[in-house]
Design a protein that fits this description.
- This protein is mainly β.
- Helices cover about 0% and strands about 55% of the residues.
- It has strands spanning about 5, 10-15, 20-25, 35-40, 45-50, 60, 70, 75-80, 90-100, 100-105, 110-114.
- The strands form two sheets. Strands 2, 4, 5, 6, 9, 10 and 11 form a seven-stranded mixed beta sheet that branches. Strands 1-3-8-7 form a four-stranded antiparallel beta sheet, with no helix packed on it.
- A hairpin with a 6-residue loop joins strand 4 and strand 5.
- The protein starts with a strand and ends with a strand.
- The model has no long low-confidence stretch (mean pLDDT about 95).
């Protein structure tokens, strides 16, 4: 079973950058499509970005397109976040999906001060 652990969150000023990392344990990580979701206080969890198992296809929410970049290697998935805005403040969750199995990490807080 693959387990996901996020890191890299923190406090940053508007316009700044952060890089989130999601470490995946387990031998079958490479077959999982991976993604990032976020949840702001009082709001529903929303899709941010995803990447196919091969890394060849990426998808982004309109709100982050052109500012965020998702990537992966053999054991981690990353979310490079540039030009951060106050509305990007949320808990960011790493997720993996393979067939009917969906995994979630515990989340990492990102706070953008204006």
């Amino acid at each position: 079973q693959v387990q996901l652990v996020e890191s890299g969150g923190g406090l940053v000023q508007a316009g700044g950058s952060l890089r989130l990392s999601c470490a995946a344990s387990g031998r079958t990580f490479s077959v999982y499509a991976m993604g990032w979701f976020r949840q702001a206080p009082g709001k529903e969890r929303e899709f941010v970005a995803s990447i196919s198992w091969s890394g060849g296809n990426t998808y982004y929410a309109d709100s982050v397109k052109g500012r965020f970049t998702i990537s992966r290697d053999n054991a981690r998935v990353y979310l490079q976040m540039n030009s951060l805005k106050s509305e990007d403040t949320a808990v960011y969750y790493c997720t993996g999906k393979y067939g009917t199995v969906t995994l979630w990490g515990q989340g990492t807080q990102v706070t953008v001060s204006s």
